Amino acid sequence: MRMVFPMECKCLFSVLVLFSSLLALCTVPISAVEGEFVVTLDYSNFTETVVKQDFIVVEFYAPWCGHCQQFAPEYEKAASVLSSHDPPIILAKVNGDDVANRQLAQEFDIKGFPTLFIVKDGGKKVQEYNGPPDADGIVNYLKRQLGPASTEIKSSEDAATFIDEKGVVIVGVFPDFSGDEFDNFISIAENLRSEYVFGHTLDAKLLPRGESSVKGPIVRLFKPFDELYVDFQDFKVDALEKFVKNAAMPLVTIFDSDPSGHDYVAKFFDLPNVKVMLFVEFSSEEFDAFNSKYRDAAELYKGKNLGFLLADVNVTEGAIEYYGLKADQTPLIIIDNNDLESKYFEAKIKPDQIAPWLEEYLDGKLKPFIKSQPIPETNDGPVKVAVFETLEEIVFNSGKNVLIEFYAPWCGHCKRLAPILEEVAVSFQNDPDIIIAKLDATANDIPKKFKVEGFPTMYFKPANGELVQYDGDATKEAIIDFIKEKRDKSIQEESARDEL
Q1: Is 9 a catalytic site residue?
Q2: In what residue span(s) does the Thioredoxin domain sit (predicted)?
């Protein structure tokens, strides 16, 4: 459960959809608004509709969301094309910002708009979609999801058609289509079919690249970059899945304005490895030198659990600010070890300094940095301002009952909550045992004990109790009632005795 707020927009390249199998015609009539092909669902007809479908796509959107507005005509166009598919593929939408649909949004763990799902087997199976956001991409992606998880390659012509020179394709070569290796390959293909294309064959001679005499079992991953193909022979499910996810990534992921690379960027940030990010102006005279030296470093340290991203500062200034740094510090290299106290950076780095700096990191010689705003000189407002350096003292060491909000200055819902939180703080201003505080989560690091996946997120720490996340309504009355229920009343009683 989480605090009941409508969600903020999220970038189109990280829009999620869920997966597929064979689509059967619905057994109950489903109708869209006349002239529209996208079916409108809400709390009153959602379950009844979905349970009757073997395959249905559902978008959660918000009317005010700019990304949703941009996506809507593409989604409608795709729905129009797919309505003529045999059998028809139904695309639906739910207004996730509607109060009446909040429970639906919570059940689907919606964190942003637009978010799409492919729901299979009457709602029993759901899988993330990482396909493109344009109409043609949606159509092609969904059609591919309707077939088997892996396609048999029977001829050179099949292989030439199947192995896309612009995308990643994974092909299993087997002496026969049976046994544990084949079963595990199909299992991985089913699990990852929303992200990659899988095929299988009995004859490696049909494939365009790689050793043609192998009989298998072997997995050959084709890609349009770096070494163009990689072979792998460990068919344990975990090892095979890890291989696919890592080998399908470029040695250096490029983050610029080209949308064709945004899928790789999304995967880069999803992987659990240490992230090395170099921010430089792609149009600068030094770019070629940075590009060359950075790729040399990536090749040198390949296999050491490092992922490398090269970002155009003109496109990714927001990412730099996320780390509490500034664009004028570029060329800038950052290491994020997915740990609060394991982030490192070097501003104004030179191309020849990249490899030595990484060597220092690997040798444990670099000093990590923590993002924190300065401690406020005055802090006498009803809602106290917390920063990273004071968070522990305010929440855990003050001996008070503390409600802390994690917010983002750009978040519309945080802005709407601000006056409500102010009213809550004013209502407790004569209670010395209650603190209402807030922390800018974009300007401060957040300890792992706080799980902040969206904004605003609020936690309450009773004076002598455990930390608990607030998941109620965003109203003054609901928040006050929650505090009164969860507060440690023993210190309140002790204060009353002292007054007597």
Answers
A1: no
A2: 17-147, 344-488
